[in-house]
Design brief:
Elements lengths: L1 H24 L2 H7 L1
Length: 35
Amino acid sequence: METERKDFRMFSLEERERAVELYFTTPMTTAQVVE
């Protein structure tokens, strides 16, 4: 279970970084809605 948790944490970090880039590329309208 600990191993799975570590993997999940790493994946979450990478996914979060990718999501941030996606949000930046998205139009201002979407950014406003997110905020």
